[in-house]
Amino acid sequence: MKTSLMKGAALGALLAAGAAVAPASAQDSIYVANNAYRTGPFSGSGIPIGDGMRDYFTMLNERDGGIGGVKINFEECETGYDTKKSIECYEQAKSKNTVVYSPWSTGATLAAIPRAHIDKIPILSMAYGLSASADGNQFPWVFIPPLTYWDGASVMVRHMANELGGMDKLKGKKLGLIHLDAPFGKEPIPVLENLAKKYGFELKLYPVAAADMQNQGSLWLSIRRDRPDFLYNQGWGAMNPTAVKEAIKNGFPINKLVGVWWAGGDDDARAGGAEAKGYKSLSFHQAGANFPVVQDIIKHVVEKGKSLAPKEKVGENLYNRGVYNSMLVAEAIRNAQRLTGKKVINGEDMRRGLETLNITEARLKELGMEGFAAPVKVACTDHSGHHKAYVAEWDGTKWTKASDWMDPLKEEVRPLIEANAKDYAEKNAGWPKRSEPCEKSS
Amino acid sequence: MSDVAARPAPNLLSNGWIKAGLILAGIVLASIVGAQLDGSGTLHRVLIDPFQQMASAPDLLVQTIWEGLVSGVLYALIALGFVLIFKASGVFNFAQGIMVVFAALTLVGLYEKGVPAFLAVILTLGVMFVLAVTIERVVLRPLVNQPDIILFMATFGITYFLIGFGESVFGGNPKQMITSELYLPKGAIDAKILGGFVSFQKIDIAAAIIASIMIAALAVFFQYTRIGRALRAVADSHKAALSVGISLNQIWVIVWFTAGIVALITGIMWGARSDVSFALEIVALKALPVLILGGFTSIPGAIVGGLIIGIGEKIGEFYWGPLIGGGIESWLAYFIALGFLLFRPQGLFGDKIIERI
To answer: ipTM exceeding 0.90?
Structure first.
């Protein structure tokens, strides 16, 4: 209890110190705002992500003295996964001239998108948020690499086809979508409906109200009645461990339950005990501490006592997701520095850096991330890249890679995204036409 | 008020049961007409199809009712925590939810520090007792005889204090409930009945039994003991109770401690179904429709209300939910409660408040 008390106090002190110091160092550092939710019903997922994000930047500051010789002033703003609070955080980030805003919730992203286009602050919603924002023509200030929820849902369909032995075998099968009854949970529905029509499988929806995240009894009874062949879980927070437990309880074959990448927390799977072995989740990066980048974090941050994460949690799936997100931010900053020749960049430079982001296999190796993730390339019109994902499997103690890297069904997803983006612009009267020029190199 | 209003003309519709009967008859009539009009349309799906499903797969019906029963008993237990405090302090205890989280976190937290499971339970009870005493000393005592709304707002204060305190002590990480260490059973009993199978989770059976025992014990305790009588006196009037020598402070500590025990048991049972995190706080709010339905002041009301809501929402969700896209459970509970309120505004067993003008 003592250590956690101290940790709590340390966190409090850290937040207080961050708030006090930030304006003074605005000139010689780059300010990066990050929404966090270390409290509230979703803190189980929020804590490891926040730790990973924070530790990567601390490592860059400790090991390399920042990026391009400029220290990164990384600051968390606590939202408790509450959209209302996220707007406060957005305003705070804006007043401190953040170069990028990471909303860390789909609701917060939706709330920030209209504001950011006026304030000219790039939003990085890494594999969450509004899928349609992958259209750079309509959303020049929003970035959603490496893939969108729609891509994820299409990867799920591809995985289902692989298991069944071909796309043509999908006909007549039943896919159930368990989803949080909130903007985040409902994101994949349009694309799955489309794919269901095209490939002739049946889509069943199982919404979970936020108040019933831990009370899924009747939902699983419906699943028992409907007998879907596969289940895709677009869940978050306490909803995921409950779903894993209920699947086991209700005798649903656990290896047919596949979570979106956010349902792939170590704690989510651990809740099911030994019987959770075989639970699956999509992912776009690897778990584990055996990567040079994670080893550097351990060496420069964790072992120096500068991390909030206990050492055994470093390298867990969601921790590494935080690291991955920070890596995207850091690489975009580096890219913006290269493009503009400036050391201390601003939001508009960062937008250019994000739009021409190109992390190659070679660059990943330099970063100590060989095999950790697939290369990422963002373009002027394509703000996501629709990159590969794979299916991870819980082996009882950790997440392992259980499939090859799979491309999303881009040819299905992309037209939907463009149509949807256009629709968004039309529905929001006065949506600004893109005036930002594309980079010549992209 | 005029004499006419005081002695209204006999009106059949003023009798709730007759009204209910008429509405029911109307529904039946409409369903028959509806079924005639459209063989497989909306009416058919609303009024006929669910019952056909129940008849064709009775095992699923039994399973649904069982799930509803288990949740119902657990709701009743949570509602009881509210009722006791409402009776004693006249307030809706907004902090009940966070007390569930706090109790469960304390239990798991102590176990993680190496305290044996059952000792951890006893120590947690101790913590809940200290909490009850503290709340009485620091929050309730200075507010004696203040308007109810002040006490209500004070429970908000307690909530935010416990959230902050809990997070700084235990952190926000979700934890696993120590079910097997507490010798709570695992696995399921699959019973083959009615041409299918019904699976009874052992943990659910245990939950239903433990919650029922708790409820029975509390009901007996507060109905038939000296303290129970004192509680009812306090519920009627703080001042009058004080004047006959009932110690308000003692009653408050007992009631808040009892609410703490209820919170711990709720925390263990719900924690076992999911994990122990601050999300458990929301579970306690499931008791709200139960309280509306059963009446804020009635122990039998909490029990019957819990069962009606539990079974009602599960059956509603399972058979009628798919018609409108599912996920109706959370508001259906309020809907059921509302339906009952139309006929008994004071709740099923609530005290009828008569205020003469």
So the answer is: no
CB-CB under 8 Å, B326 with A222 = yes
Give the residue numbers spanning the domain of A203.
149-286+389-411
Cis omega (within 30 of 0) on the bond before A432? no
Instruction: Suggest the residue from A215, A313, A319 to mutate for an interface test with chain B (most B CBs closer than 10 A).
Output: A215
This prediction has a pTM of 0.81
Looking at the fold, whether A136 and A24 belong to one and the same domain comes out as: yes
A 269-288 residues with CB < 8 A to B: 270-271
Q: Is the pLDDT of residue B62 over 80?
A: yes
Q: Domain check: are A277 and A397 in the same one?
A: yes
CATH (residue range B59-342): 1.10.3470
- Asked if residue A337 and residue A401 are part of one domain, the reply reads no
The amino acid sitting at A388 is K
Q: Is residue A393 part of a domain?
A: yes
Q: In whole angstroms, give the CA distance from residue B107 to residue B100.
A: 11
**Residue B314's Cα: distance from chain center in Å?**
15
Ranges A3-12, A229-238, B75-84, B268-277: which has the least confidence: A3-12
Contact A212 B330 (CB under 8 A): yes
Please report whether residue A225 resides in a domain: yes
Residue A434 included in any domain:
no
Q: Flag whether A404 is in a domain.
A: yes
Q: Which helix (H) or strand (E) is A163 found in, with range? A: helix A149-164
Q: How far is Cα A362 from Cα A375, in angstroms, rounded to an integer?
A: 9
- Among the listed ranges A21-25, A209-213, A418-422, B159-163, which one has the minimum average pLDDT value? A21-25
Same domain, A228 and A351: no
The rounded Cα B214 to chain-centroid distance in angstroms is: 13
pLDDT above 70: residue B355: no
Q: Is A349 in the same domain as A203?
A: no
The pLDDT confidence band at residue A304, using thresholds 50, 70 and 90, is very high
| Backbone φ/ψ region at B93: left (φ over 0), alpha (ψ -120 to 50), beta | beta
Count of domains for chain A: 2
A14 inside 8 A of chain B by CB: no
Tell me the nearest-neighbour CA distance from A192 into chain B, angstroms: 15
Mean pLDDT, chain B, rounded, equals 81
Q: What residues of chain B, 91 to 110, have a C-beta less than 8 Å from chain A? A: 109
